[in-house]
């Protein structure tokens, strides 16, 4: 499938026995044969993994206090959001940034800047956070789901073209979990069909595709700074772009429809003396100065934390590699940096004596290892049918259009992914090598007793 499997770089042919010998300093032996906690044994760890968010009184505390003391708390009053926009643009190597109050608002703003509305279609993946889809529905447009690549959990770019038609107004790939969608294929298709790309980069801060930051390859890229994200201010978001006209439209929408224009030098500025004048329909999705200040402070930690996640993910992959039935997902060869918002794997019960994924996850948690089964298939969630059967949609789309829509969005590979996925969150990778050894040790212990666990 053209993938490069980065997870088998060290231990392709090694068994677990020599691996155990290579980690003599670990207090927990990876091949631990003691009874799993779910069967009444002792958990492999009792200490929590690193907490989130990480902050210091010197950086984040002072930043918030300075805004409080200034008395300028809103975006239109101060300059902290402006500073962060410049910093985020410098970090990504992109000239234009618009900060928003959340990642969902960033996506909504982009769709409005493109004037996407009733009758339009937007290509989306079914394996993502619901906001990628709900923003399309909020425009009374149709989210057209393209199946998932089961090897990478990203949208399968080879299946996008058959889903296009005259109504397709945008491609919205998601860089899931900190990895990258296949941007070579997606951007080629975008240019051939003249369809803009809006990258949902909400989970991929500092991820790269062939050395370029995710979010900067399409017409626009959207980021989230919600409390779980690798760059965090509780709630927040941003749009980035290299296109000044597009950013001017985004700025206008995010600031209640006020007019913005592009100078001959390419600067995007608010029209002088606009006051209470409005040139387009808009919304207020401006962030506060507190969010801007907190993001500038958190940005100072981001690179070091990203490197730590990369290091721990690589080590964890070497530990899990010999264990049959639990396979870390692959990345495309163009993904030159993975941000590891999620560490994602495929679980195969056959490697664990038929133990169901549900019980495997329960057994992991009993060992003190936080893990998740990931997303459900969005193309089968009840909110989708409820939306399409609502009065506004029935006024726009005929019964035949709705019927054919359901036929177009079957995603069998995604159904499989939703049954196989196992996730570790990004804070798990902020631990140390011993933490990674605990994860592998817990998996090994569960595998050894899988038959007994399946019977309880």
**DSSP helix count?**
15
**Relevant CATH superfamily of the largest domain:** Type I PLP-dependent aspartate aminotransferase-like (Major domain)
Question: What is the C-alpha radius of gyration, as a whole number of Å?
Answer: 23 Å
> Which CATH architecture of the largest domain is right?
3-Layer(aba) Sandwich
Structure description:
There is one protein chain. The protein has about 450 residues and is an alpha+beta fold. The chain folds into two domains: about 5-50 and about 300-375 and about 415-455, Aspartate Aminotransferase, domain 1 (Alpha-Beta Complex); about 55-295, Type I PLP-dependent aspartate aminotransferase-like (Major domain) (Aspartate Aminotransferase, domain 2), CATH 3.40.640. The protein has helices at about 15-20, 55-70, 80-90, 105-115, 130-140, 185-195, 245-255, 290-320, 355-365, 380-390, 390-395, 400-410, 410-420, 435-450, 450-455, and strands at about 5, 95-100, 120-125, 140-145, 170, 200, 210, 210-215, 220-225, 235-240, 260, 270, 325-330, 330, 335, 340-345, 420-425. The strands form six sheets. A four-stranded mixed sheet has the order 2-10-9-6, sandwiched between helices. The protein has a three-stranded parallel sheet with strand order 4-3-5, covered by helices on one side. α2 runs antiparallel to α8 (about 290-320) and α3 runs parallel beside α8. The longest helix is centred in the last third of the chain and has 32 residues, at about 290-320. The protein is globular and about 75 Å long.
């Amino acid at each position: 499938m053209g993938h490069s499997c980065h997870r088998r770089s060290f231990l392709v042919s090694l068994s677990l026995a020599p691996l155990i010998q290579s980690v003599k300093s670990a207090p927990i032996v990876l091949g631990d044969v003691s009874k799993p906690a779910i069967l009444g044994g002792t958990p492999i760890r009792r200490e929590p993994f690193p907490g989130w968010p990480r902050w210091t009184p010197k950086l984040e505390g002072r930043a918030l206090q300075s805004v409080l003391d200034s008395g300028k708390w809103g975006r239109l009053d101060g300059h902290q959001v402006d500073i962060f926009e410049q910093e985020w643009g410098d970090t990504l190597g992109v000239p234009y940034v618009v900060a928003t109050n959340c990642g969902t608002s960033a996506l909504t703003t982009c769709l409005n800047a493109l004037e996407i509305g009733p009758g339009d279609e937007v290509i989306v993946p079914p394996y993502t956070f619901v906001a990628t889809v709900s923003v399309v529905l909020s425009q009374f447009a149709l989210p057209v789901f393209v199946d998932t690549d089961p090897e990478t959990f990203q949208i399968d770019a080879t299946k996008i073209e058959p889903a296009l038609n005259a109504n397709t107004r945008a491609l919205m790939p998601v860089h899931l979990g900190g990895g990258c969608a296949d941007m070579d294929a997606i951007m080629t298709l975008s240019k051939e069909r003249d369809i803009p790309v809006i990258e949902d980069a909400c989970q991929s801060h500092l991820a790269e595709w062939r050395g370029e930051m995710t979010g900067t390859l399409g017409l626009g890229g959207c980021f989230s700074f919600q409390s779980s994200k690798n760059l965090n201010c509780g709630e927040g978001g941003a749009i980035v772009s290299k296109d000044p006209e597009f950013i001017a439209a985004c700025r206008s929408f995010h600031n209640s429809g006020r007019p913005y224009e592009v100078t001959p030098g390419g600067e995007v500025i608010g029209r002088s003396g606009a006051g209470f004048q409005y040139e387009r329909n808009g919304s207020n999705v401006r962030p506060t100065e507190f969010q801007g200040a907190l993001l500038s402070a958190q940005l100072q930690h981001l690179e070091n934390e990203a490197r730590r996640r990369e290091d721990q993910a690589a080590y964890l992959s070497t530990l899990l590699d010999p264990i049959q039935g639990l396979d870390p997902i692959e990345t495309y060869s163009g993904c030159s940096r993975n941000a590891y918002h999620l560490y994602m794997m495929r679980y195969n019960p056959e490697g664990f004596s038929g133990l169901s994924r549900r019980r495997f996850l329960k057994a992991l948690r009993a060992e003190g290892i936080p893990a998740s089964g990931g997303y459900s298939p969005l193309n089968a969630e009840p909110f989708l049918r409820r939306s399409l059967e609502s009065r506004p949609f029935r006024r726009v789309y005929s019964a035949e259009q709705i019927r054919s829509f359901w036929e177009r969005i079957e995603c069998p590979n995604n159904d499989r992914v939703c049954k196989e996925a196992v996730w570790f969150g990004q804070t798990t990778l902020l631990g140390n090598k011993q933490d990674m050894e605990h994860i592998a040790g817990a998996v090994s212990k569960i595998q050894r007793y899988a038959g007994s666990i399946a019977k309880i």
